[in-house]
């Protein structure tokens, strides 16, 4: 697999990483053996950048990864995890030094490591200046606990404020052929500042799979069941568009998932998508995207089939979107 740099001065990692939310059952039940097999497949294919978070199953995803790292001490993975979301007494955001230190140290314990390559603020606490939060994270770097600072779902203006305090390694946001907001300033700002942009959900939460998901089969823990894009007329309209895209991919000999990853990679050399899966077979389709080279004709046809703004419905429910900085 080709490699890309994780921000100015950061490590080189595979151009496609792995989002590990699925290891905590957000898209259906799984087990440790299946998750470990997926991690084996990552190593087989050069996927060496793993993204997890404390909030994923309240540590379950980190525990799964930690058990794998313990069994495979020469794994070669670069690890990113996230903190800043508290769930008790109710869900809220706490970016204070004390809360972040506790979160980081608990993540390190579950992962079985004494160093995290990249540590993200999962959601900003708006009442606390981002400059103060960045100073806290810079302190963690000086203490040798983390290698780089990241932020999730922030605005370009917030990135500029943070980067003025200490160089930011990465920003992650949802970005794909059906979620295009980062094109309104974040991708450009990251490129200007030398910050990696890390798209999560680049295959649209399974919508670019070979077979479209069926919302009627979503279990109680499935992250998608309340999202407007997966409900009613929105879902029907989205499926019709994706049927045409799937036909186009078939005519080119690509999987839809591989083509979706290739499109994301094609948007800039500083993008490192982190599709999520708990399956070796799905992972192998995703990494195929690194080998797809688009012609100008391909780009024009994709734009015609899936023009910017084509998706019906919001990407999050009203409850899920709390904390996301909406800048346009």
UniProtKB/TrEMBL annotation:
GO terms for molecular function: oxidoreductase activity. Keywords: Oxidoreductase. The keyword Ligase does not apply. SUPFAM superfamilies: NAD(P)-linked oxidoreductase. It holds the Pfam family Aldo_ket_red. One of its GO terms (cellular component) is cytoplasm. Coiled coil: none annotated. Residues 16-305 form the NADP-dependent oxidoreductase domain. Gene3D superfamilies: NADP-dependent oxidoreductase domain. PANTHER family: AFLATOXIN B1 ALDEHYDE REDUCTASE (PTHR43625), ALDO-KETO REDUCTASE YAKC [NADP(+)] (PTHR43625:SF40). This is Predicted oxidoreductase.
